[in-house]
Amino acid sequence: MSESTATLEARAPMEARLTQLSMQQALNRALDEVLSTDPKTLVFGEDCGQLGGVFRITDGLQTKHGDTRVFDTPLAESGILGMSVGLAMAGFHPIPEVQFDGFAYPAINQIVCQIARMNYRSRGTLPMPITLRVPSFGGIRAPEHHGESLEALFAHVPGLKVVSPSDPHDAYHLLKYAASRPDPVIFMEPKSRYWQKGDVDTADGGSLTGARVVRPGRHLTLVAWGAMVARCLQVAELAAEDGIDVEVLDLRWLKPIDAATLATSVGKTRRAVVVHEAPLTSGLGAEVAQLITQSCFDTLKAPVERVTGFDVPYPSGDLEDEYIPNIDRILLGIQRVLEYRRG
Amino acid sequence: MDSILPAVGTADTAPLGPGQLRELYSLMAAVRYLDTSAVAWQRQGIIPGYAPELGQEAAQVGSAYALDTARDFAFPTYREMGVARAMGVDMVAYMSTHKATWHGGMYNPPASRLAPIQAVVAGSVLHAVGWAHGQTLSGEQGVALSYFGDGASSQGDVHEAMNFAAVMKAPVVFFIQNNGWAISVPTERQVAGGSVAARAAGYDIPGIQVDGNDVVAVYEATRNAFAHCRQGNGPVVVEAMTYRRGPHSTADDPGRYRSLDNERIDAGVDPLERFRKRLLAEGEADEAFFAAAHDAARAEEEAIRIGIEALGPRPGNEMFDFVFQETTPVLENQATRWREESEHV
């Protein structure tokens, strides 16, 4: 049998593997499959069992996989993450959930001092194959501590990897990929995108390790991740009406950042705007801008621009539309870059 | 000292045989020599720092002697040298953390059944609970032995750990060495509610206090706690009341917070001397045995010192090698840059 024939036979028909799912459904399906294929996988957290999680990401998993594989924990984030360390030491693959981004703060000690360091501390003898799911970012008019963007904090910690999907297809494949890795991954789910549907090719995830150009363009690169990717795609559509051809780069991995894809994109467009919800100062946009400067300094036509949240605590729902980069602010950022003239 | 809560377990309560009693003494002597020598090594510049445990030999050796290293796992903080020694851990590898060779020590945690040394003292208490729950999920009989002190018991993680363990009936023994001092702060300014063991009642966990200077009492309490766990009854709290006779670390000056008179009165009888007198009185050992035990301890200490002095610095690339199981391009680039910019090719 030739190799091409084997490949064809191994592939499911297109209609069987292409499906429309919301990100919530995609994540749920990914967890279901991971639980089915890896008997060492455990899914747990506050309300993850019978309720299926406050966002229903774990819906039905306890019924199907049993209450030893999928279980509720007491309400204590440090406890959930500290227990994950011990379970990993015992040979399990924990997929804990912190219910909301802001509740990762009480667990920071375990995340930073323990999960991130145990492999190092033990000279590689105690790996931490933990995938920490964190419903992240704002945009759902939630109470305080339910709309935080912690990526810079996590990405700054040696020993952690950080990823954020922007659509159902990536959510499905990146979660399965993260759960199969031997290192701790902080999996930041854009909660404002949970209910958006999209095509999911369950058979072919494509490359999952780097950034992804989600819309090619010639004049400028918008760099974003998580919920901001969809907004940047909207901006690109509007900009196109004015003849501005915007490339949108979904960074996906916030640590390690795919510097090569970033360099290729901005090397072509020669202009870049980074868009993130997190506060400006010491945000990940600064890291991205530096990587672009390092690789594209000679060809850049303007300094890298940032359109971000502000250096304020994440505000109440009534103010979050003022805080999160909106279409107008991103368009203005694009305008500043396009109109830049060397002094 | 009497238990303040009912004793637990229905373990085999056969008394220790003469050979075991003598082994306990030999272990305590080995720990005593290594501990006092490590302080001297710091003064001599052989190691940069050390956390002494003078006076805690009975608590550490007695509790660790109850472990079955074929199936159990111990979770230390940074003052558990006696536990490591009693478990048979490679002591040069253990002491290497004090030589500043590698955080966590150079021993192999999965193989030795001793988790890496660490300084965030309540952090490992939750790890013990997670590991113990893993035993339940796997249907195995291992018990986690979690070491922490009166100071660590103030941290929230200890309370979360006790609650989690009680809710999940995790087979974990919370072993508190209450040595009277959290650096400079005495227990009465550290532990509300009278004792750490008393807190166990709030979680419906059996909690016992034991004389931490009596190695046999400590062993029996821990053994009973292990039996309780193995029978599927969930966690136990054992609080060993002992005394840290020396400084918190080689950088500490206990004269600033307690007097020598206080130390003499509060410390009670030296656990090693006390056990020696008991063995003599009961005819379990004679002076020749003690002399041989001390000679062996001295020889062992000497061999460990030679091993410690022979430890060279680690190759710098290890700084990058152990961050992840799967390294990243960013880290590889940094390692390359480091090689280019240093002479450590």
TrEMBL record, chain A:
Annotated SMART domains: Transket_pyr
Keyword set, alphabetical order: Oxidoreductase, Thiamine pyrophosphate
Matching CDD domains: TPP_PYR_E1-PDHc-beta_like (cd07036)
GO-annotated molecular function: oxidoreductase activity
A Pfam family the protein falls into: Transketolase_C
Coiled coil: none
Record's keyword annotation contains Cell division: no
EC nos: 1.2.4.-
Protein name, per record: Alpha-ketoacid dehydrogenase subunit beta
Listed PANTHER family: PYRUVATE DEHYDROGENASE E1 COMPONENT BETA SUBUNIT (PTHR43257), PYRUVATE DEHYDROGENASE E1 COMPONENT SUBUNIT BETA (PTHR43257:SF2)
Transketolase-like pyrimidine-binding domain location: 21-196
Statement: the UniProt record of this protein carries the keyword Oxidoreductase: yes
Cross-referenced InterPro entries: THDP-binding, Transketo_C/PFOR_II, Transketolase-like_Pyr-bd, Transketolase_C
Cofactor(s) it depends on: thiamine diphosphate
Native source organism of the sequence: Arthrobacter methylotrophus
Record lineage: Bacteria, Bacillati, Actinomycetota, Actinomycetes, Micrococcales
UniProtKB/TrEMBL annotation, chain B:
Segments traversing the membrane: none
Oxidoreductase recorded as keyword: yes
Catalytic activity: N(6)-[(R)-lipoyl]-L-lysyl-[protein] + 3-methyl-2-oxobutanoate + H(+) = N(6)-[(R)-S(8)-2-methylpropanoyldihydrolipoyl]-L-lysyl-[protein] + CO2
InterPro entries: Alpha-ketoacid_DH_E1_comp, DH_E1, THDP-binding
A Pfam match: E1_dh
Keywords: Oxidoreductase, Thiamine pyrophosphate
Record family assignment: Belongs to the BCKDHA family.
Protein's UniProt name: 2-oxoisovalerate dehydrogenase subunit alpha
Protein's organism: Arthrobacter methylotrophus
Native organism taxonomy: Bacteria, Bacillati, Actinomycetota, Actinomycetes, Micrococcales
